[in-house]
Structures are given as structure tokens and as C-alpha cells.
Design brief:
The protein is 5% helix and 44% strand. The chain is built from three helices and 44 strands. The longest helix has 19 residues, at 18-36.
Length: 577
């Protein structure tokens, strides 16, 4: 505790009544404690780059250039878009976007004046979630949507952090954008902006196209396919293609792209056609389009405008040959062998969801009575007593009932504890009727899990809020279970340890940032009162496979905010021990 002259009693206190002296001495002591002993605890690990309490998110953005470190970005404060002219906007959140210099000299951390303001009122996820990541192209340039109050409108633009230049892309005054507002091609060399008035922008900005009343735009590789023309509403579009550095070319009349999927023979595009029958009712027909040869092959007709393909990403089997169709019944069609298998309407009507097992031609059907049906081409549907449950795989947000390799599957079953409350179980997908192992306590809420490189699963469970999870590490091969008392939120997972917000408190919405040893559960405190953190993925976006995300020396950035103003508040940069 720092000493202070105010700890010496005043002359008035010496001369006055004893009780008055005691009150004023106590008040002075409290003042000293507040002024000289805050914040409690030790200083965070690392360097204090910026002092501020209004920031809401922190993010490393890879430079995409070898030898150039990642850029450090922060957002805040978050606020809702105000009502304009009596019109209430949808629930969109905006925040200012800053770049933080990471080579600042040691000393007192500056306030926001020490940061580089890139743009004001940028569109961010609702509440500016701590895991917010700015979209970037292959050169590491930021893609940003900025709110313009005077219009009101949104400006889409691109920021080159290496040069500081900002390139305008498009303005949107006719609608409120959804999030994320940009669609990147697989190689991130082209960006698609908009829904009705569509803009396509090349890597160097030398080949820019704007389309009016385009629809169903989708990338197949780096080529853009879209429905074009200016037809009346409800009339079919023409199918167009725009190749990199090319010109729009008409592919086919009376067709529009519906959905794309990958196969071991290259990507395929399903094209939808609206035809008129003799009685004047529309008939929707679908064809398989090969982008490499520009050839089409007919698939099927729905015969009813209310029926169509399932647009879910689970449409195609892992090899891309089996397609799921939904009409009055669930139908599976192999476009290579022309085999067709229909699941009777009585069974189809009871399906809650379906999913292809990764790496296998097995369609798993979760039934509304809590049972499971597994369809295979050679056996049809086999009934199983327990239905799968889809869980979110972190950090890529892949929602699935399986581990990523398809070897294991998740289900909810009564836990071992008294009362029969459900718990998350994991078992072998090769033997779905065989033994399964409990992962989390009965009755706990489950949302996501992480997968370790050695095949183990780390799952978080909570009872009050998903920011206060306890994590359980299970080996799906043996059922060996280890509990990690985190009472917080996992930030990142490495080969042998995890980075997590521990002892999360709902009031200040913060916790202790700790490294957790996965073998022993031992915790190493890095900083207190942390409410957002991010891990540097590396100096280049193409991080080699097998890289330990939390290897010693890895840079992390985090935001600190004490319950009251503190010299520790703001942005910190550190290297993991």
C-alpha cells in the first residue's frame, strides 16, 4: 500500500472531540486505501499498450505476408444504430475500429489517442462479441461495413493496413445489411457484396462489376455464378458466370444457381428451372451442372412448387455422389450410378434432422421419438434406440453429431447420477448400439466441444450461463474422464494446455485469464479482470498443420477492466510462458 500525507491526523482532529477525530481518521484511512491500493492483485503479464475502459473486442489480423507480424485491432464502444425519422432499424450493432501499435515504448500507456482510428460506426456482431474477427482478403486487407448516419446508409470499403489506404466498394441505402456482409471466394481473391444490387471486386480492384436485380449469387471455385437479367418478379432468371478478370458470360437461359457442393471429381452446381405445365402450374426441375465442362445432366422434377431440394449443407454425401431430396418423402439419388432410394413418407415425416457421417456413405436420421435411423445404400434404414445430438465444434463453429473424423458420435442419455437427468455421451460410430461414455454431468447445458490432436474431446457444461462452464476431458476410446474446474470460458486450445477465462463473474463480465495444463489441471494466472482475449495465429495466415496454437512464445492480446477505474485497464500484449 502506498503511504500518503493524508494519513497524518489534521490539526483540527487533534483539538476536537475524540469521536470526531476517530471518524475523520477513518475517512482518511479509507481514502488512502482507495487511492493508493487499487487495483487489487498483481499487474497483468506483458506490456500495457493502451489505457481505456470502453473497448469491447480485440483481434489479431494476419498480415498475409511472411516476415510481417499480425496486426492488432480493437473495437469499441459498441452501440445500437439509432432510430432515424421514426423508423426503427433492425438489431444491428456498430463500433469504432482501431489499430493498436505493438512496438510502443515502455512507460505510461496512452488512451485512445494513442491508437489509429481506422473507421467509425463499423458493423459488428450484436453486442460486439469478444470473438469478433474482421474479414480479410488474401492480402490481409480488412473488409468493413460502415454506418453513415446522414443517409442513413452503409458504406462497404477495404482497408490496407500496410499502406493505410482505404478503397470504397459500394454504398447500400436500400436495405439493412446482414452479418457477415461480405462473401469471399474460396481463395479470398474476390469479394461479393450485397444481396440485390451485387458488387464483385477483384483482388487488385481492376475488374469491378455491379449487377442490378441479380439473384442467387454463389462462388464455384473462384468463378461467380448468378441469376441475371431484369425479368418481372416470379419469372425465371438466366444463368451467368463471371470468371476472374473476365467479362460476364451467359451460360444458360431460364436457369438460376441453387446450391453448390464438392465431389472428388470437382465442384458441382445444381441449377433450378421453373417450367410451365400444360395446366399452367409451375414445375421446378433441377439439373447438375459441371463448371469444368459447362455440361448439364437432368436430375429430377419436384412436380410441385412447394417442394424442392434441401438447401442444407448436408445435401451431398462425403464423396458428393449421393444427394438428399425432400418431396413427400426423403429420397436419396446417386447422380453417378443413377440409383434411387426412397424412405417411406411415414418414416420421413418423423425425421427431426439428418446428417451424413463424415467419410462414410451413411445418412443418420434423428427421429422425433428420440430414436435413430441409419441409412446405407446396401441395407436401407436400420433402427437404433438412441438419437444423435448435434454439438458445435470449436473454434470453427461446425455443428455436427460427429467428431470431425466421423469416428465418434454424440447423444443425450440419462446420466449416472440419481434422477435420470440427461447428459452428453460419446460412442463409436462404427458400433452405434455399443457402449457410450458420459462426458458431462447430468442436467448440464451443452453447446460446444473442442477436439485435441490426440483424439480426446474437451466439452464445456454449464447450469446458469454459458460464460461459466466447467470443462471435461474425455477419451472416446476408453471413457477415461478428467474434470477441469474452469468456471469460465475457453479461449483457445493447444496441444497440452488451454487458455481460458477462469472464475467468470457476470456482474463485471470478466474473469481471470489462465493457462491450464491439460495433464494436471494446474492453472497459471496471466491477468485478472479480463473480458476479451485473442491469440495470434502467426505472421502468415497459412499456419502449418500440427502447429501448437499455444506454444511458448505465442503472442496473446487481452482487454482488462477493473470494477472501478484502474491503471491496469485497457489493452495488453504478452507472450505465453
Amino acid at each position: 500500500m502506498n503511504s500518503s500525507p493524508t494519513a497524518v491526523r489534521s490539526q483540527e482532529c487533534v483539538a476536537g472531540p475524540t469521536r470526531l477525530c476517530q471518524r475523520r481518521a477513518l475517512a482518511a484511512l479509507v481514502a488512502v486505501t482507495v487511492a493508493g491500493c487499487l487495483p487489487s492483485g498483481s499487474a497483468p503479464m506483458g506490456r500495457h499498450l493502451l489505457s481505456d475502459r470502453t473497448l469491447t473486442g480485440v483481434h489479431f489480423s494476419p498480415s498475409e505476408t511472411d516476415g510481417v507480424p499480425s496486426y492488432l485491432l480493437v473495437t469499441g464502444p459498441a452501440r445500437d444504430i439509432p432510430e432515424e425519422g421514426g423508423v426503427r432499424p433492425p438489431p444491428l450493432t456498430v463500433a469504432d475500429l482501431y489499430q493498436i501499435p505493438v512496438d510502443a515504448a515502455s512507460g505510461t500507456a496512452p488512451g485512445l489517442e494513442g491508437a489509429n482510428l481506422l473507421a467509425e460506426k463499423c458493423l459488428v456482431p450484436i453486442d460486439d462479441a469478444p470473438d469478433y474477427a474482421v474479414q480479410t482478403d488474401i492480402r490481409g486487407r480488412l473488409l468493413v461495413m460502415r454506418y453513415i448516419e446522414a443517409s442513413p446508409a452503409f458504406d462497404a470499403f477495404r482497408i490496407d493496413l500496410a499502406t493505410g489506404t482505404q478503397d470504397p466498394l459500394e454504398r447500400y441505402a436500400d436495405y439493412w445489411p446482414s452479418y457477415p456482409p461480405f462473401v469471399l471466394s474460396p481463395g479470398r481473391t474476390r469479394v461479393l457484396v450485397g444481396r440485390f444490387n451485387i458488387g464483385v471486386f477483384e483482388l487488385d480492384g481492376e475488374n469491378t462489376f455491379l449487377f442490378s436485380n441479380a439473384g442467387d449469387a454463389t462462388f464455384v471455385g473462384e468463378d461467380l455464378y448468378y441469376g441475371g437479367g431484369l425479368p418481372p418478379i416470379y419469372q425465371p432468371l438466366d444463368l451467368w458466370r463471371l470468371t476472374p478478370d473476365g467479362q460476364p458470360e451467359l451460360v444458360d437461359h431460364n436457369a438460376s444457381p441453387f446450391v453448390t457442393f464438392a465431389t472428388d471429381r470437382g465442384p458441382r452446381l445444381i441449377v433450378e428451372r421453373e417450367l410451365q405445365t400444360q395446366d399452367g402450374t409451375p414445375d421446378y426441375r433441377f439439373s447438375l451442372f459441371d463448371p469444368a465442362t459447362l455440361q448439364e445432366a437432368p436430375l429430377m422434377s419436384t412436380g410441385n412448387p412447394g417442394w424442392s431440394l434441401n438447401p442444407d449443407p448436408t445435401l451431398a454425401s462425403p464423396d458428393g455422389f449421393w444427394l438428399v431430396w425432400w418431396t413427400v418423402e426423403l429420397t436419396l439419388f446417386n447422380w453417378v450410378t443413377f440409383e434411387t432410394h426412397a424412405i417411406d413418407p411415414a418414416t420421413s415425416s418423423r425425421i427431426s434432422f439428418w446428417e451424413w457421417r463424415p467419410g462414410h456413405d451413411e445418412l443418420w436420421l434423428a427421429m422425433d421419438d428420440g430414436t435413430l435411423g441409419i441409412w446405407k445404400p446396401e441395407t436401407g434404414v436400420t433402427a437404433m434406440p438412441v438419437a444423435p445430438v448435434q454439438n458445435t465444434q470449436a473454434p470453427n463453429s461446425r455443428k455436427s453429431a460427429f467428431t470431425s473424423d466421423g469416428n465418434y458420435w454424440f447423444s443425450l442419455r440419462p446420466g449416472h447420477e440419481p434422477g435420470g437427468q440427461p447428459a452428453l455421451y460419446v460412442g463409436s460410430a462404427d458400433d452405434p448400439s455399443g457402449p457410450a461414455f458420459q462426458v458431462t454431468p447430468a442436467g448440464a447445458q451443452i453447446y460446444s466441444h473442442w477436439e485435441l490432436a490426440d483424439g480426446r474431446i474437451l466439452a464445456g457444461a454449464w447450469t446458469t450461463t454459458d460464460y461459466r462452464k466447467d470443462y471435461y476431458l474425455v477419451d472416446p476410446r476408453t471413457g477415461a474422464l478428467q474434470g477441469l474446474a474452469v468456471n469460465g470460458l475457453l479461449v483457445a486450445l493447444g496441444h497440452t494446455r488451454a487458455l481460458a477465462h477462469v472464475n467468470w463473474e457476470a456482474g463485471p463480465a470478466s474473469g481471470d485469464l489462465c493457462l491450464i495444463d491439460l495433464a494436471t489441471g494446474a492453472q497459471t494466472l496471466l491477468a485478472q479482470d479480463v473480458y476479451a482475449a485473442d491469440v495470434d495465429p502467426g505472421v502468415h495466415a497459412d499456419v502449418p498443420a500440427g502447429t501448437d496454437a499455444l506454444a511458448p512464445g505465442t503472442r496473446i492480446a487481452f482487454l482488462v477492466r477493473n470494477r472501478i477505474d484502474s491503471p491496469y485497464d485497457g489493452v495488453w500484449l504478452a507472450e505465453l510462458p
